[in-house]
Amino acid sequence: MNVVVCMKQVPESVTISGVPQGTASVRPQGKMVINPFDMYALEEGIRLKERYGGRVTAISMGPAEAEEALKEAIALGIGEAVLVCDPILEHSDTLATSYVLARCIERLERPDIVICGRQATDGDTGQVAPQLAEQLGLPFLSYVSRIEDISDGRLTAQRLVDEGHQVVQVSLPAVISVVKEINEPRLPSLRGLMQAKKAEIPRWTAPDLGLDVSKVGLDGSPTRVVNVFVPQRSQQGQMLEGSPESQVDQLLEKLRDAKVI
Amino acid sequence: MEYFLDEQQVTVRDLARRIAEERILPLRAELDEKEEFPWEIIKELADADMFRVFIPEEYEGLGGRCLDLCLVIEELSRACGGIAISYAANALGCLPLIHHGSEEQKKKYLPQVASGSRLTAFALTESTAGSDAGNIKTSATRRDGGYVLNGTKQFITNGGEAEIYTVIAMTDPSKGSRGASALVVEKDTPGFSFGKKEQKVGIRASSTRELVFRNCTVPEENLIGREGSGFIITVRTIDRSRPGVAAQAVGIAQGALEAAVDYARKRVQFGHPISAQQAVQHMLANMATDLEAARALVYAVARNIDSGAKDFAEAAAMAKVFASDMAMRVTLDAVQIFGGAGYMKDYPVEKMMRDAKITQIYEGTNQVLRNAIALDVLKRRAMRE
Asked: How far apart are CA A33 and CA A17, in angstroms?
């Protein structure tokens, strides 16, 4: 079994000091961590390696600092990692990102399964995984909450849907995105951490991957961030007045009108 | 304070802290209440390689340094003293093997301990022998190329849960303490069973149980060291493990201090947080000062041991006495700062107070250790005359 896990680094939500306003896609200040949803993807990748053998590789597109996140993945038990890092990739939108990740995956040993987190907590689009499947020409399963079985080149999985669960089968290779219900991510081990400290993460640039530069970066991105703003909170509180008895009557009337009682 | 830990020690400490905060904190109250052995956490610790910390590299460990072990015990104790001792008792259980075992014994048992797949325990105490370790009654009689054990061990940490026991028994009762020997007894050996499981005031997540030997036969190769060396193995083992108990005390006190500081800043009386009261401030100052002094002593002793020093018994005893008395004071003061809330189980400090008490008692009561320290102090002076 050959597994590739896609991951990215995001600002830790509890440490973000404020959302930058304006049009530029400035990264908010804060401690950078592995996208929480990608932790489930990494865990599932490691579990597949433990269950079926083979190899699991983590890939990320990002700035040089993203190497820290890949090292953390190695500390968890991911065997290998690759960082796609090139200044011309900056400001890539989801389509451009999925194009880059697809070319990166094509350079690796052909994977049986590509695993992504359901979405990243910074952009929150959830688009990269399906776009990646499209770019690779592979089938896609979103919101996977349990891998039931892998045999005869087919993957049977449970998907989380609004009404409950769906059990689906897909032929491999395939791309899947996972939800937090799928597992409980492990903590790193001491030997993993020591190995990660020594690990050298290969860095691939746009020329290394033979990327078409018109498809990456700001110019290669069909979507634009027009504005970034904090939504206004609307409060529709109402003060009731009068004697306590009349306030109770008013309240009951309003609750009846709202059909809650 | 900066203690100039090396890279491995920082890694070990940080991961132990993460496990304590993410995995132990949410479970500690429940495990304490139910007196339940922390198997889930033990598995986490094993997966994180924490059992490798106290095992030498040749046997799939990470070096077996005393300071590294103390850092783990301290961090775990900051969250739960009971879980910390369930872990630390494994180091105690295999110290006789590490320092006195044969190559075959080390190769056989230590990798199993390092991976966390089998827990260990050290069995010395009996109903008639605590500090007076020479008075043990459990016998190990040589017969047909093996030893037949009879007797009952009491208050054994990890009893029932561990699979590898290092047991001190009399191979020649006529020689008194010189007739004691150390033997490995594995769980499921015929004639070896478990008796009463103790109900305790503190460290309730840990298991404390009787070991019962009724014509339990172990092969000759389970003897650690030579016949008659059981008493000296015991003394050296406990000298080495005392900094671990001291680290447990430091960790419990650290948890109590942090809780007290947080509470003092939040609790408002007479219109101000009680942290604005000088009476409370001085309590916090004393707690923090005592705690740092104890930590400095424990780390210094652990480093002394790691440097290969032979003569560390007195310093190890001092660290255990000082740190455990400190932990008792600090946890009592933490309860006091919490006021009525501190006496309630909904808050964490009453548990810390209960957990701290045992550190003054086990691995040599602080009274018997003071006897030993005083003896060394007086001997040094007498030798100069």
From this structure: 15
- B374 and B238, same structural domain? yes
Q: Which residues contact A258 (CB under 8 A, 6 or more apart)?
A: none
Task: Give the type of residue at A174.
Answer: A
Domains of chain A, start order: 2-215 (3.40.50.620)
How close does chain A come to B179, measured CA to CA in Å? 42
Whether residues B162 and B199 fall in one domain: yes
Distance of residue B46 Cα from the nearest chain A Cα, in angstroms: 9
Does pLDDT of A21 surpass 70? no
Of A189, A194, A197, the CB nearest to B48: A189
Last residue of a domain, one of B71, B95, B114: B114
Range of the domain at B277: 231-379
DSSP H stretches of helix in B3-80: 7-19, 28-34, 39-47, 66-79
* Cβ-defined contact of B48 to A188 (cutoff 8 Å): yes
CATH number of B283's domain: 1.20.140.10
Cβ atoms B225, B105 nearer than 8 A = no
Q: Is A194 on the interface with B (CB under 8 A)?
A: yes
Across the interface, do B48 and A197 touch by the CB < 8 Å criterion?
no
Q: How far is CA B189 from CA B110, B118, B163, B164, B193, in A?
A: 19, 15, 10, 10, 8
Alpha carbons B83 and B54: distance in angstroms, whole number: 17
Q: Mean pLDDT, to the nearest integer, of B250-257?
A: 98
Kindly report the CATH number assigned to the domain that includes residue B203: 2.40.110.10
Domain assignment present for B25: yes
A177 min Cα distance to partner chain B (Å): 26
Question: Could you tell me if B65 lies within 8 Å of chain A, comparing CB atoms?
Answer: no
Q: In angstroms, rounded to a whole number, what is the distance separating the alpha carbons of residues A166 and B320?
A: 59
State the nearest Cα–Cα gap between A43 and chain B, in angstroms.
14
**Residue B133 and residue B223 share a domain:** yes
Taking 80 as the threshold, does the pLDDT of residue B225 lie above it?
Answer: yes
Contact B23 A194 (CB under 8 A): no
Residue whose C-alpha is closest to residue B139's, from B213, B189, B190, B195: B213
Determine contact: B12 vs chain A, CB below 8 A: yes
Mutate to test the interface with A, among B7, B9, B10, B11 (most CBs of A within 10 A): B11
> Does B164 share its domain with B252?
no
Instruction: Note the pLDDT tens digit of each residue in A198-255.
Output: 999 999 999 999 999 999 999 899 998 888 777 777 777 788 888 999 999 999 999 9
Asked if A199 is an interface residue toward chain B (Cβ–Cβ < 8 A), one would say no
Q: Do B11 and A194 touch (CB under 8 A)?
A: yes
* Interchain pair A188, B23: CB under 8 A: no
> Does B385 reside within a domain?
no
What is the number of structural domains in chain B? 3
Residue B385 has pLDDT above 90, yes or no: no
Q: What is the ipTM of this complex?
A: 0.90
Instruction: Give me the active site residues of B, please.
Output: 363
Both tokens assigned to B96: 């006789």
Q: Please name which of B59, B45, B137 lies closest in space to residue B104, comparing C-alpha atoms.
A: B59
Task: Assess B47–A contact: CB distance below 8 Å, yes or no.
Answer: yes
Is the CA virtual torsion A75, A79, A84, A90 positive or negative? Answer: negative
Measured between CB atoms, does B50 come within 8 Å of chain A?
A: yes
Q: How far apart are CA A63 and CA A84, in angstroms?
A: 8
Contact list in A for residue B18 (CB cut-off 8 A) is 187
Is B208 found in the same domain as B170? Answer: yes
In a shared domain, residues B235 and B222: no
